[in-house]
């Protein structure tokens, strides 16, 4: 399945990504053979009870990463090794080694012939065919790895056959209706991914970078450098588990300082304060991280159940929304994070949140019962006693798992649902009307996202694991309603 999709802005990726130097399998296994984990499990109970999270040795975190990397390498190599063994077996049969002693005595094993002739270069060898093929192959490989500034890049968080990974897709649009999509490279993940957030804050120094934060079933947040290929470990890990050990036949877990204690369900990058990342967790908390220092700078506990989604206001970057399974949406001001600015009760468990990119005071919340509600932050008191939704839309028959505002056309909202449909809504005058609907054959929809660069392209991911790109200008309702916002003609939908 595809659990999350996001677009990378055009030109943000390196033209030719670098190939990482991964640690060898032998080096990783050597670290594990040192027995650090086993020795750590022998610590007596008295010392165990006194150990603080902050005192956990850093080497344990390195071993955890090494273990994850080993697992990833084994998963990748397992298929290759199986194919290699089969090829070797076939090769041995062709050699017919059982009849080796029966070879005719007249055969000269080291005959003199054209094979003995040496030529200073391949170009001078008259018997060598297709002399330039190697160079052509190298050129083709470089061309395949090149990411042009005009290419659209989409990152999918995918789980397939118990292997979790990120897929970096290239979408090439020729402008004449023809398009091409392919996987540029992928990144193996140690845990099932649940959410992603792209960020351009350069953690390596300089102005801008190309990084992806990933939340998973684990309490850690991993930040991967998308400009590195064949990388086996994240550039940065926020929070997570330092060590797991047995105590009285039960597993005791030590978390890194200020870590979440459960799965990370939602992530939001602050585009204006670029070193700030917010996270929502099943541990009922919301955390704000400084990704440059790698530290948690604030933790809130304004919800009584799992927190599913977080979203920053792009006009007022200090305002943060969080939506929970406690059927409420909370807004806080980053300058006084421990105080609730406003709180809105909703009809069901919150699935997604989105600020209106064209209005600084409006947001929508999608819910488990198929309802989408719109709110105006200028209406309602801090305790929610006088809240009033701007609209209530029964959008789908099942949970509305994902929502996305169009960045170009005001009042155009996309909704994706576990009822396997994606719908487009015109929210003008706070009276929503459906202008298009499709079943993209992606199964239950888990994630949708409009492109900032091509605002009428909608990426869709679902339980069938197929990335879909919907060109919404191909829908008559969109073409009629939003004609003045569409710069290009109609184009077909694309899938992979």
Secondary-structure topology with pairs:
Elements lengths: L1 E7 L9 E2 L5 H9 L2 H6 L3 H6 L7 H38 L37 H13 L6 E9 L2 E11 L5 E11 L3 E9 L6 E9 L4 E5 L2 E2 L6 E3 L2 E7 L2 E6 L8 E6 L6 E6 L4 E5 L4 E6 L6 E6 L6 E6 L3 E6 L6 E6 L4 E6 L6 E6 L3 E6 L14 E4 L5 E6 L6 E6 L4 E5 L6 E6 L6 E6 L6 E6 L5 E4 L4 H6 L12 E2 L1
Parallel strand pairs: 2-9
Antiparallel strand pairs: 1-3, 3-4, 4-5, 6-7, 7-8, 8-10, 11-12, 13-14, 14-15, 15-16, 17-18, 18-19, 19-20, 21-22, 22-23, 23-24, 25-26, 26-27, 27-28, 29-30, 30-31, 31-32
Pfam families: ANAPC4_WD40 (PF12894), WD40 (PF00400)
Keywords: Phosphoprotein, Repeat, WD repeat
Organism: Dendrobium nobile
Structural summary, described in words:
With 496 residues, the chain is of the alpha+beta class. Helices cover 16% and strands 39% of the residues. The chain has 6 helices and 32 strands. The chain has helices at residues 25-33, 36-41, 45-50, 58-95, 133-145, 476-481; strands spanning 2-8, 18-19, 152-160, 163-173, 179-189, 193-201, 208-216, 221-225, 228-229, 236-238, 241-247, 250-255, 264-269, 276-281, 286-290, 295-300, 307-312, 319-324, 328-333, 340-345, 350-355, 362-367, 371-376, 391-394, 400-405, 412-417, 422-426, 433-438, 445-450, 457-462, 468-471, 494-495. A hairpin with a 5-residue loop joins strand 4 (163-173) and strand 5 (179-189). The radius of gyration is 27 Å and the shape is globular. The model is unreliable at 34-85, 103-114 and 488-495 (pLDDT under 50). It holds the Pfam family ANAPC4_WD40. Residues 256-313 form the Anaphase-promoting complex subunit 4-like WD40 domain. InterPro entries: Apc4-like_WD40_dom, PWP1, WD40/YVTN_repeat-like_dom_sf, WD40_PAC1, WD40_repeat_CS, WD40_repeat_dom_sf, WD40_rpt.
């Amino acid at each position: 399945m595809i659990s999350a999709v996001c677009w990378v802005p055009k030109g943000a990726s390196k033209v030719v990504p670098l190939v990482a130097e991964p640690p060898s399998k032998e080096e990783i296994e050597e670290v594990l053979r040192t027995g650090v984990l086993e020795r750590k499990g022998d610590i007596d109970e008295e010392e165990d009870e006194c150990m603080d999270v902050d005192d956990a040795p850093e080497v344990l975190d390195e071993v955890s990463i090494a273990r994850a990397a080993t697992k990833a390498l084994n998963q990748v190599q397992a298929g290759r090794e199986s194919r290699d063994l089969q090829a070797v077996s076939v090769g041995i049969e062709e050699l017919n080694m059982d009849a080796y002693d029966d070879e005719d005595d007249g055969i000269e094993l080291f005959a003199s012939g054209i094979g003995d002739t040496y030529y200073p270069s391949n170009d001078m060898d008259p018997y060598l065919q297709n002399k330039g093929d190697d160079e052509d192959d190298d050129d083709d490989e470089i061309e395949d790895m090149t990411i042009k500034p005009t290419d659209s890049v989409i990152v999918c968080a995918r789980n397939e056959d118990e292997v979790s990974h990120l897929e970096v897709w290239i979408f090439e649009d020729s402008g004449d209706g023809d398009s091409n999509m392919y996987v540029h490279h992928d990144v193996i993940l140690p845990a099932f991914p649940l959410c992603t957030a792209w960020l351009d804050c350069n953690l390596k120094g300089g102005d801008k970078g190309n990084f992806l934060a990933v939340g998973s079933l684990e309490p850690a947040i991993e930040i991967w450098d998308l400009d590195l290929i064949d990388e086996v470990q994240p550039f940065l890990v926020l929070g997570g588990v330092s060590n797991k050990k047995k105590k009285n036949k039960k597993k005791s877990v030590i978390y890194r300082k200020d870590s979440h204690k459960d799965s990370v369900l939602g992530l939001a990058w602050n585009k204006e304060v670029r070193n700030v990342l917010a996270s929502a967790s099943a541990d009922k908390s919301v955390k704000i991280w400084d990704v440059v220092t790698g530290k948690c700078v604030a933790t809130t506990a304004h919800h009584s159940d799992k927190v599913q989604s977080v979203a920053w206001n792009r006009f007022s970057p200090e305002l943060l929304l969080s939506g929970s399974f406690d059927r409420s949406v909370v807004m806080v001001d980053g300058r006084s994070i421990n105080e609730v600015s406003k709180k809105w009760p909703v009809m069901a468990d919150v699935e997604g949140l989105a600020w209106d990119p064209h209005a600084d005071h409006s947001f929508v919340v999608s819910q488990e019962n198929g309802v989408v509600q719109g709110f105006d932050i200028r209406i309602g008191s801090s305790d929610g006693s006088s809240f009033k939704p701007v609209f209530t839309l029964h959008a789908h028959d099942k949970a509305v798992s994902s929502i996305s505002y169009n960045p170009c056309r005001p009042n155009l909202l996309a909704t994706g649902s576990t009822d396997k449909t994606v719908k487009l809504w015109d929210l003008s005058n706070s009276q929503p009307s459906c202008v298009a609907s499709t079943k993209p054959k992606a199964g239950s929809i888990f994630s949708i996202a409009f492109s900032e660069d091509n605002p009428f392209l909608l990426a869709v991911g679902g339980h069938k694991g197929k990335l879909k790109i919907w060109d919404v200008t191909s829908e008559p309702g969109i073409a009629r309603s939003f004609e003045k916002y569409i710069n290009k003609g109609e184009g077909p939908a694309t899938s992979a």
